[in-house]
C-alpha cells in the first residue's frame, strides 16, 4: 500500500521535548515515530512501527538461518522460577513485581532464561532432542533507575532473546559461534557501525560473554579498542587484563579542610581524582540508605554538582552487603574526558566491581555541613586507570577509548540455569546428561534509536535502506497537477515493489514538506514540483544531498 501522508496519523513537531538530550530521542519524537506514554514507556506510531518491524524482520531472517525456532513466551510470569535461581533478589528494584487478586506473586519478564529452561525441560527428554535454538521477539520490562534517551533505555522495550541448549561444551561453543556469526550479519544488514567487545556477564551469570557495541556519543558504555589487533573490551571487563596500579592511601576525610559543603577541590583530593573528573556509577549510604549517583542509565555527574548535592547526613561507603541483590550497581568507572577509571573494591566484593561515594538526594541541600563531622567515609579502594594510549594487553599498541551503545549481548551461560531446574536429558550412554545453555539478546527497539544516533544529521533522520519506513518519499509540491503526477508515480513504483511514502497533504507549504521529508529520513526523496507539467521530477539522495532533475520515465527505471 502506498502510504499517503494526507491520511496518516503523523504530525511532525518543530521542537523537541524539553527533556530530550540525545539526537535519537529528539528526532524520533519530532518526526512522529514514537510518542512517550510514561517514563520509559513508548508508543510506536505508524512510521516508527515500520522501522521496528524492519529491524525485527532482519533479526528473524538471520535467526531462522541458523536454525532458530521462533516461539512466544508470556511477559507476565510467576515469580517463583526467578526465586529458584536467585534472580528475583539479584535484579532487585529492576524487577517489576505484581500480585494477582488471590495474592499470587508475578513478575514482568526482564529476560527469560528461567522460563525457557522450564519449557525445554518439559519438551526435551533425550540427547536426540538437542541441540535446539529457541528465540522470541518480545516485550521486556525493567524498572530502570533512570529511563532516559527515549527508546534507547526504556522500562518497557522490545528484545530478541534466544537460548541454545546443548549436551556438551563443544555443542555450546558451536551454538555460540552460530549466534555470533548471525549477529555480525544482522548488524551489517541493519547498517550499523559496531564493535564486538569482551564483556562481563553480570546478573546473567555464566562464563564467556561478548557485547556488540555501536559507537556513539550518547552511549552509556565505555570501551577500549586496539587499533592494531582484535582486542576490544567494555571497560567493565578491562580490569581482568590491565595490571592494577599500586595501592593509593587516601587521606581520611576528617583531615579535609571543608568549611560548609565540600568544594570541588576537597572532594577531588578526597577521592584521589583530578578536579576535572566526572563521576559515574557512584554509590553512597545516606542515613543508612543506599543511594546511587550515575547508575547505568544516568548522566555523568561532575564534582561541582556532587559537592552541591552532598547532604547533611551520615554518608558512608557502601559495603559488599549493600551490593547484594543490586548487581546493576556493582560496576563502574570515574572518568574525566577520555579516561576510564576502574575501581577495585573491597575484596569481599568480587573483582571487577565498583565502589562509591557521593550523594544525590533532592531537597537535601542544606548548608553548614562539615565533612568529617556530618559525614564519614570508612573505606577506600584501589584504582585501576585506563587511559588512551595505554598498552593493549594483547599486542602492546596504544589503546583507544570510546563511548558506545550496547545493542547486543551473547553469553555462554553453561549450567547455571539447567542446574537450578535440573534440566537433564538421556545421553548416548543411557545416563542422564546435564544440559548446557547459552543466551543471546538484541535490543530491537534500542537498535532503532542507536541507528538514529549513528546515521542522523543536522536535518533529521537518515535511515539505511533496510530499516527505512519507505524506499522513496515523494513530495507533491502542492498544485493539483503536481499531486496527480506524484500519486501516479507512487502507484507505479508501488506496483514494481517499491515502498512509497507520498506527501499529498493539502494546505501545507512546499517548504514545510521539504523540511519534513529531510526530518523523516527516507533514503530517496522525489519532488513533483516546478516542472511537473513537463513530466520532470527531482530526485534527491537524502544522505548526500545530491539532486538532479529527470523525466518521470527515467525516475521509474532508476527507482525500481
Ligand atoms: P544495559 O547495560 O544497557 O543496561 P543490559 O546489559 O542490562 O543493558 P542485557 O541484559 O544484556 O542488557 O539485555 C540484552 C539487550 O537488551 C541489550 O544488549 C540491549 O540491547 C537491550 N536492552 C537492555 N536493557 C534495555 C532497555 N532498558 N531498553 C532498551 N533496550 C535494552
Ligand atoms: Mg541493564
Ligand atoms: Mg550492559
Ligand atoms: Mg548486557
Automatic annotation (TrEMBL):
GO MF assignments: proline-tRNA ligase activity
Record-linked Pfam families: HGTP_anticodon, tRNA-synt_2b, tRNA_edit
Keyword presence, Ligase: yes
Primary localization class, coarse: cytoplasm
Tree of life domain: Bacteria
Enzyme class: ligase
Localisation per UniProt entry: Cytoplasm
Alphabetically ordered keywords of this record: Aminoacyl-tRNA synthetase, ATP-binding, Cytoplasm, Ligase, Nucleotide-binding, Protein biosynthesis
Subunit structure: Homodimer.
Main function: Catalyzes the attachment of proline to tRNA(Pro) in a two-step reaction: proline is first activated by ATP to form Pro-AMP and then transferred to the acceptor end of tRNA(Pro). As ProRS can inadvertently accommodate and process non-cognate amino acids such as alanine and cysteine, to avoid such errors it has two additional distinct editing activities against alanine. One activity is designated as 'pretransfer' editing and involves the tRNA(Pro)-independent hydrolysis of activated Ala-AMP.
Domain-related comment: Consists of three domains: the N-terminal catalytic domain, the editing domain and the C-terminal anticodon-binding domain.
Identification of the protein by name: Proline--tRNA ligase
Source species taxonomy: Bacteria, Bacillati, Actinomycetota, Actinomycetes, Kitasatosporales
Gene: proS
Amino acid at each position: 500500500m502506498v502510504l499517503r501522508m494526507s491520511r496518516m496519523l503523523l504530525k511532525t513537531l518543530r521542537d523537541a521535548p524539553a527533556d530530550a538530550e540525545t539526537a535519537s530521542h529528539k528526532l524520533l519524537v519530532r518526526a512522529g515515530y514514537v510518542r512517550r506514554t510514561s517514563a520509559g514507556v513508548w508508543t510506536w506510531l505508524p512510521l516508527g512501527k515500520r522501522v521496528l518491524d524492519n529491524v525485527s524482520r532482519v533479526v528473524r531472517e538471520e535467526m531462522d538461518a541458523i536454525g532458530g525456532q521462533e516461539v512466544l513466551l508470556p511477559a507476565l510470569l510467576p515469580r517463583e522460577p526467578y526465586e529458584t535461581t536467585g534472580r528475583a533478589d539479584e535484579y532487585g528494584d529492576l524487577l517489576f513485581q505484581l500480585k494477582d487478586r488471590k495474592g499470587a506473586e508475578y513478575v514482568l519478564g526482564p529476560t527469560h532464561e528461567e522460563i525457557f529452561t522450564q519449557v525445554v525441560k518439559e519438551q526435551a527428554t533425550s540427547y536426540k532432542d538437542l541441540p535446539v535454538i529457541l528465540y522470541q521477539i518480545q516485550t521486556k520490562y525493567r524498572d530502570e533507575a533512570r529511563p532516559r534517551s527515549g527508546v534507547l533505555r526504556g522500562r518497557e522495550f522490545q528484545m530478541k532473546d534466544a537460548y541454545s541448549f546443548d549436551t556438551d561444551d563443544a555443542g555450546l561453543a558451536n551454538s555460540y559461534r552460530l549466534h555470533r556469526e548471525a549477529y555480525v550479519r544482522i548488524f551489517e544488514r541493519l547498517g550499523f557501525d559496531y564493535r564486538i567487545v569482551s564483556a562481563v556477564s553480570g546478573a546473567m551469570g555464566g562464563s564467556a560473554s561478548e557485547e556488540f557495541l555501536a559507537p556513539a556519543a550518547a552511549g552509556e558504555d565505555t570501551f577500549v579498542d586496539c587499533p592494531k589487533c582484535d582486542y576490544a573490551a567494555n571497560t567493565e571487563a578491562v580490569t581482568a587484563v590491565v595490571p592494577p596500579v599500586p595501592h593509593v592511601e587516601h587521606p581520611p576525610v576528617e583531615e579535609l579542610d571543608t568549611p560548609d559543603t565540600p568544594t570541588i577541590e576537597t572532594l577531588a583530593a578526597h577521592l584521589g581524582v583530578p578536579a576535572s573528573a566526572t563521576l559515574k556509577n557512584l554509590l553512597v549510604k545516606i542515613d543508612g540508605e543506599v543511594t546511587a549517583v550515575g547508575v547505568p542509565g544516568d548522566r555523568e555527574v561532575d564534582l561541582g554538582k556532587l559537592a552541591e548535592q552532598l547532604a547533611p547526613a551520615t554518608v558512608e561507603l557502601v559495603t559488599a552487603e549493600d551490593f547484594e541483590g543490586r548487581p546493576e550497581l556493582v560496576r563502574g568507572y570515574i572518568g574525566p574526558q577520555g579516561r576510564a577509571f576502574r575501581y577495585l573494591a573491597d575484596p569481599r566484593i568480587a573483582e571487577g566491581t565498583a565502589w562509591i561515594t557521593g550523594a544525590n538526594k533532592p531537597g537535601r541541600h542544606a548548608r553548614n555541613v562539615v565533612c568529617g563531622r556530618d559525614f564519614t567515609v570508612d573505606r577506600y579502594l584501589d584504582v585501576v586507570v585506563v587511559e588512551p594510549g595505554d598498552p593493549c594487553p594483547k599486542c602492546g599498541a596504544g589503546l583507544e577509548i570510546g563511548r558506545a551503545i550496547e545493542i547486543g549481548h551473547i553469553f555462554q551461560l553453561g549450567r547455571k540455569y539447567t542446574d537450578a531446574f535440573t534440566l537433564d536429558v538421556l545421553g548416548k550412554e543411557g545416563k542422564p546428561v546435564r544440559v548446557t545453555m547459552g543466551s543471546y539478546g538484541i535490543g530491537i527497539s534500542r537498535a532503532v534509536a542507536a541507528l538514529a544516533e549513528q546515521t542522523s544529521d543536522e536535518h533529521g533522520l537518515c535511515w539505511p535502506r533496510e530499516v527505512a519506513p519507505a524506499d522513496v518519499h515523494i513530495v507533491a509540491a502542492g498544485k493539483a497537477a503536481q499531486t496527480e503526477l506524484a500519486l501516479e508515480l507512487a502507484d507505479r513504483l508501488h506496483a514494481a515493489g517499491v515502498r512509497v511514502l507520498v506527501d499529498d497533504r493539502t494546505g501545507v507549504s512546499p517548504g514545510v514538506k521539504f523540511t519534513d521529508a529531510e526530518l523523516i529520513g527516507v533514503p530517496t526523496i522525489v519532488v513533483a514540483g516546478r516542472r511537473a507539467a513537463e513530466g520532470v521530477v527531482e530526485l534527491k539522495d537524502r544522505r548526500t544531498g545530491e539532486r538532479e532533475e529527470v523525466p518521470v520515465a527515467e525516475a521509474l527505471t532508476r527507482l525500481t
